[in-house]
Structure formats: structure tokens, C-alpha cells
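step 4 of 6: structure.
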Amino acid sequence: MEKLAAFEVLDPGILTTIQDGGRFGFSQIGVPPSGALDPFSFRVANLLVNNQGNEACLETTLVGLKLKTLHECTIAITGGNLTPMLNGETLEMWKSHLLIEGDIIAFKKVCSGCRAYLSIGGGFIVPEVMGSRSTYLSGKFGGLEGRPLKKGDILYKNSSWLPLNQLGVRFPDEWIPTFRKETFLRTILGPQEDHFTPKGLQTFFSSTYEVSTQSDRIGVRLNGPRIERKADVEESIISEGLLSGAIQVPGNGMPIIILNELVTGGYTKIATIISTDLTKVAQLKPGDRVRFQPISIEEAHQLLKNVEACYEVFSNAMKGN
Amino acid sequence: MMGLYKKTIYRWLGDRGLVLEFGDEISFEINQRVRRMALAIQTEAIQGIIETVPTYRSLLIVYNPLLIPIDLLKRCLEKIEEGLQETPLPEPKLTKIPVVYGGVYGPDLEFVAQYHGISSEEVIRLHCSKPYWIYMIGFMPGYPYMGELPEGLNTPRLKTPRLSVPKGSVAIAQRQTGIYSMESPGGWQIIGRTPLELFDPQREPPALLRMGDQVQFYPISEKEFLEWKN
């Protein structure tokens, strides 16, 4: 396929990176998955522009990203509503659009959520590193030279053709998630729930925690009531493997939700957020409030199957179009 | 010391992870069990298992619940465990790691020597006195957690971690030794630096060291270190 210059970055905003579905199979040599933090919005963004796999998208945080279109292309924007604008007019999210040379895309203000995904027909092209195009910021590799976008960057895409009758296709309203300032996160207890007192567990599941400003792609730090630990257990455990959604409770008793950029850790994990709710986790921003609920693994897997069915239905509808 | 659990503990890590815990201490025996199990799972190639993360005393299994139901996953793993004793382990590979000790390269060497009431030379001699097992790779790409240090080098972590530790720094904490494969914050005692690249995403394989292999340190001069770099 031909490689075309699609955008010039006029302003990278607070943090914009290139992410695909993630870098898997290297945890045992310490390499985390990275990838889009909100897997649902990421996947739908690709489906909307007829990308078959986990093509690389832009993940932009809060506000400020501004792009100039260099070549005709199809795009879709999903995720948090960061008020995307096309040439000064509001651009509808969760829908495919055609851009032409000279069009300006800008993200104006945070309406809901924290991160938006901009997909492009054909996918953004950067070299694959260890099987993925995702940016791993602390490792300084993947994506665009292992770093966030900066002013003046040129973003390339594969040439691709979206059937004209699919332009303007929308993701069904009833499946579009809403990202609120106060949200419930469903979790599965453990793996180290036995390190906490019954009172500590009760505190965890009955309190509201607020997202701290010290949150990034590595983890979401929370402030709220301190979670009590049993007196006879150590504050840390022998380092072991981590997955995104794991909720660590370090010595200060304040929970931290682990995201996609850590592979091992030595803090106790009170509970782990279910895969389906990682989309909500990715959309948390400082000041948002969360509460935790315990559910069973079986329920979690059923929820995952339901989401999978949504993709399937929509994907088939796209193909049949 | 409790050693290996009589029965492995299975702990769920959310809805797509399962941690097999073989013991609750840093020991060679437990770690060999982790390694044996990781290799056996790799050999079995069970559909639905995405990857495994072997660590000191446990093994994280990452699976796709849409491809394998959890009762089947557990049964498969229990069956592999039953037949584990027969799984042969590959011979460990020994990698020799050159280190320039002390000075700007090892700012904590003096402290470690004073802490144990020995000379810096003795710290270096002890650190290089035997090969170490690589218990796990983690924390950052290619970072080896190795042990165990001679009892005479058992040193606590720094009270306040450093905001930035240079790449290649060779460090110790309690009876472990490690190498910072990238620049990063860190709380271990830095005693030297190696010119070797522990991790390079463009190289095949990207990580110089693997879990289950061995490392032997040897001292080099500052001149040798600088020439190595060039």
C-alpha cells in the first residue's frame, strides 16, 4: 500500500500518542503492553473507518490537539467528548467523516471523559517495534520515535478506500458509553484481599475515591478513606505480574489503578477491575469520583461476551453495507 | 522458611489473569518451579493462553476468557502441574557482565563498604565471587532480579529513592542484585555500571538476559568502560 502524508500537527495538545491494540508476548522480558487505554473506543474508532485489525490511532488527552489535513482521508473520533471541531464547527463523534486537504481538526474543551481516539482509514503508519506501533513512553520506543507528538510532526497513513456509501456511518447510540464525573467500577476481589481487614474491605467497597492529579498512562491515583491492612502482614509482597485494572494499595492505604505500562509490582492488590470497565477507567480525569463494586468472574465474562457481540453486530453491519 | 507450598495457590487477577503462587519467599527451589511451569505451559500451547509472566515465586497466566472457559483453564493447568517433575529444564546460560565499580559509576559503593565494615575492594570481590541466578525480569524492559548475594553484602534499600538512576547501573538491595536497563527512578544501592546494553527493542532478542539463566560480574577499569562504549 502507498504511504501518504495525512496530517501536520499544529499543536500536540496536553499529550497525544500513537497507539494500537498493544504489544503482547513480551511481559516476561519486562515489556508492558502499552496500547490504547480505552479498548472499546479504540476498537470502534477502527471499525467506523473500515479498518479490519487494530490499526494505529491517535490517543489524545484532555485538550489542545490541532491537526491540519494534508491529504483526503476518512476519520472517526470516539472516546471521551473533548469537543472535536472541524474548521471551527462541532464534529460529530462516533461517526465516520471525510476530510479534505486544508481541513483543520481541533479539540477545544473537555465535555466528558479524558481521552479521545482519532482513527484514519488505512491506519497511521509508524515502524512496528516488537510487533506493535504503540508508543511506550517510559521505554522511549514505539509510536513516533517513542515520544508524544510535537508541533510540526507529519503523520502518515496507508492509502485506503472507504466505500462512499459508508461515509457518515454512525455507531448505534445505545451502545455509545457515557463517561460521567462519578462512576461505578466493577471489580473482582483479590488477588491479595486476605491482606486487608474486613473493615478495610468495607471501606474500599463503600467509599467514594477521587482521582488525583498525579495520574498518567501508568496509573490512576486515588484519594479517599485509607484502606486498613491486617496488622500481621507486610506492606509489600514479593514482586509479581500485573495486568491493567489491578488496584494496588501501597503503605499509605490509598488505591492506585494500574494501566497498560507496568508488568510487575510489589504492592498488594485488593481487587482488579473487570475488562469491560477498563473503558471507564481510561476516561477518568483528576477530580472525577469512583466507587467500587464486587462481582463474580462469571458475571464479568458474560459482560465481556455482550460487548463482543456489539462489535460483531456492528462489524457485520459495516460489511453488509 | 516454608519452602514450596504443598498445594499451589490459584488466585484470580481480574477476569483475564490467574496467578499461580508456589510459595511465599525468594528461594531457588520455588523459582525453579515457576520456571518449570512456565516452560511446560509454553510447550503445551493451550489455546486461549496469551502469555505467562514468571516472577520470583509465582506465575501469572494471561488468558482470553472468550477462548477458554475458566474451569477448563484450571483443569489444564492442574494437569500440567501433576506431570511437572518430568519436565527437563534447559541448561542455564552464563553471561559475563563487565562492571566499572565505584566513583561516579557506583555512588553507593563507599556506603555499602562502611555499612559492612569492609573495604570497597572487598565489596567488589564479594559481588564478583559467584554466579547469580536470574529470578525474574521485570520492573522495566530487560531488568534482571538476581540473587542471592553473599550474606556479607546484605544491604537495605536507600531511605529515599533517587529520581534518576543512569542506564547500566549495577545495584544491590538486601540479598538481590540488579542492573538498570534504562534510566529510571530507583531505590537500590548503586555500586557500579556496565557498558553492556541490557535491552534494545531493535535487537533480536531484545533482552540480553532471561529468567532462569546466570550472570557473573567481573570488574573493569574506567578506561575499559569508556573504550567499551565507543
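step 5 of 6: annotate
 - Chain B is about 25% helix and 30% strand.
 - Chain B has two domains: 4-86, 94-229.
step 6 of 6: archive
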